[in-house]
């Protein structure tokens, strides 16, 4: 279905968009693009306030609300379901002065100590039993508590009371903490998480509000999917959502900072003395923000995509057992200065649990200290696209600064 256009040498293909006047530029050469994801992209491109085009990253796959691995610019409107419920989800990484020789032979002890310090998984077991003093201080200084109270005044149905016990926690699904080695055998810490339960509540609430607004609207065009319900600039709910989503994105960043601090604390107890290198990254890949592109002010939603402005550092993780990359953006305007946020799923979680065996998972992760049980089969490398193919498809978006290989991987 993909039609190569005259700009193919720039790295993108102009994807077929039946019924849409907005072009779809896809960096998908050599990677699979499922029909359902393609249809979802066409639905987004049909909206009159979307444009000047939609950018599609090589890790693209079907998502809820909007396609994962897409960059959706809008004029005067915002789509809460395109941002999703894991608001501010992203990556953080830091290089240490440790090397591979400083790591113990038995990495299970290091993994276990990190798991004891950083709650993992969803539900009450994934929360702090007692809020660490450092987390409480971080939340107080950040102003997040007061900002959330202001949001609640206008929207009392947003009643999360877990921001203290969930700051510095991992969550579940594809979130992870990893100890990695780069090409020089320097030790890195890398992690992936977002705004946890509170961000989920904020996202869910405003997605429902957008659907209710949709029922009252008189549209002069067809909306192909109710998950594309939107707020228009100038409406009270537009401003309220921008305030709430900004809060969740800031909370997600602080969550990663708190988690990183606790991981490093455990490493200092278990490993030789070390310092942190200046090389550090903390970037969202599920978020929306106002940006200038081509002299125009746009609201840019990155749904599973990372900002890759010229010289900007980012993180593109592989799956369990495969390589990850620290990258530097090339500032490609065609992609709205963006790149992929990972390898991208090639199987649904249900399909992965049905088709990947425990033996296959253990073989694929034999070189990594990680869970080898049935509970993480849906995160096994076979459930994801080839990270090599994904990186090859976006050479005009980023350059590789460091290549990382995991030696410890912690999943929720």
TrEMBL record:
Binding-site residues for GMP, renumbered to this chain: 174-178, 285-286, 317-320, 324, 341-344, 411
GO molecular function annotation: DNA ligase activity; GTP binding; manganese ion binding; RNA ligase (GTP) activity
Source taxon at top rank: Bacteria
Amino-acid positions noted as binding Mn(2+) 1 in the UniProt annotation, renumbered to this chain: 86, 175
Enzyme class label: ligase
Cofactor: Mn(2+)
Classification via Gene3D superfamilies: tRNA-splicing ligase RtcB
Residues at which Mn(2+) 2 binds: 192, 285
Annotated keywords: GTP-binding, Ligase, Manganese, Metal-binding, Nucleotide-binding, RNA repair
Residues annotated as signal peptide: none
Positions of the catalytic residues: 341
EC number: 6.5.1.8
Name listed for the protein in its UniProt record: 3'-phosphate/5'-hydroxy nucleic acid ligase
One GO process term, biological-process aspect: RNA processing
Reactions listed under catalytic activity: a 3'-end 3'-phospho-ribonucleotide-RNA + a 5'-end dephospho-ribonucleoside-RNA + GTP = a ribonucleotidyl-ribonucleotide-RNA + GMP + diphosphate
Free-text comment on the cofactor: Binds 2 manganese ions per subunit.
A Pfam family per the record: RtcB
């Amino acid at each position: 279905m993909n039609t190569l256009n005259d700009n193919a040498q720039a790295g993108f293909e102009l994807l077929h968009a039946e019924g849409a006047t907005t072009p779809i530029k896809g960096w998908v050469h050599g990677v699979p693009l499922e029909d359902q994801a393609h249809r979802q992209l066409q639905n987004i491109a049909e909206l009159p306030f979307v444009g000047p085009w939609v950018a599609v990253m090589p890790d693209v796959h079907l998502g809820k609300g909007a396609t994962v691995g897409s960059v959706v610019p809008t004029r005067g409107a915002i789509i809460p379901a395109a941002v999703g419920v894991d608001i501010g989800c992203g990556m953080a990484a830091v290089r240490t002065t440790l090397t591979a020789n400083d790591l113990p032979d038995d990495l299970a002890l290091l993994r276990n100590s990190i798991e004891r310090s950083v709650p993992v998984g969803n539900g009450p077991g994934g929360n702090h039993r007692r809020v660490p003093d450092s987390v409480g201080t971080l939340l107080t200084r950040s102003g997040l508590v007061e900002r959330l109270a202001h949001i609640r005044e206008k929207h009392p149905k947003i009643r999360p009371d877990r921001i203290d016990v969930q700051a510095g926690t991992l969550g579940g699904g594809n979130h992870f903490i990893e100890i990695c080695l780069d090409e020089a055998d320097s030790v890195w810490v890398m992690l992936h998480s977002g705004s946890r339960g509170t961000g989920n509540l904020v996202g869910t609430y405003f997605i429902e509000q957008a659907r209710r607004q949709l029922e009252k609207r008189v549209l002069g065009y067809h909306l192909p999917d109710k998950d594309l319900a939107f707020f228009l600039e100038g409406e009270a709910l537009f401003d309220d959502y921008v305030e709430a989503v900004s809060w969740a994105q800031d909370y997600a960043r602080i969550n990663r900072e708190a988690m990183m601090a606790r991981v490093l604390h455990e490493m200092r107890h278990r490993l030789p003395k070390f310092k942190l290198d200046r090389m550090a990254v903390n970037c969202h890949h599920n978020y929306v923000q106002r940006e200038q592109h081509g002299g125009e002010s746009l609201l840019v939603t990155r749904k599973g995509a990372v900002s890759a402005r010229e010289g900007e550092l980012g993180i593109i993780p592989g799956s369990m057992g495969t390589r990850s990359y620290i990258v530097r953006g090339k500032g490609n305007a065609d992609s709205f200065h963006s790149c992929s946020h990972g390898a991208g799923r090639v199987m649904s979680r249900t399909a992965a649990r049905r088709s990947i065996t425990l033996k296959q998972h253990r073989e694929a992760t034999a070189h990594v200290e990680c869970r080898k049980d049935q509970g993480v089969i849906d995160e096994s490398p076979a459930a994801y696209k080839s990270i090599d193919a994904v990186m090859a498809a976006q050479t005009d978006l980023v350059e590789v600064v460091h290549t990382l290989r995991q030696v410890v991987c912690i999943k929720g």
